[in-house]
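Hallway conversation turned thread

IA: we were arguing at lunch whether anyone had actually written out DUF202 domain-containing protein end to end. Turns out nobody had. So, for the record, here is the sequence (121 residues) and right after it the structure tokens. Reply here if something looks off.
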Amino acid sequence: MRQAGRMSDVGNPRDYLANERTHLAWVRTALTVIVLGLAIARFGDEGTVSVGSVLAGSVLLVAGTGVVVYGSCRYRATARELADGEFATAQSTTGPVMAAAVLTGAVLVALIILLLPDLVS
């Protein structure tokens, strides 16, 4: 009988490659958020640089950097677990859900910062 939380074939290359693909997806998502932040910082307020556009862009830059850090930590933890023959990281979806919530929140905060002058006047 297979023990819960243990893999039957340790060192399966498909698992390592899947982990790497997942890490690259985290990096791709983070780079997209960072580029969006840079674009907003430069062109966010009717094509001009303003305090609001720089602040909104900075929020997205910080969020994107956080996604790179989280994705890299998760990649390393999963690689370590694969090497040890354990796989506990996938049993919890709290991290990815929180990362998605933080990214969504960052986009909403950036949007509110950009729209706030229009809403006030």
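OS: looked through it. The longest helix spans residues 51-84.
IA: good, adding that to the notes. The mean pLDDT is 86.
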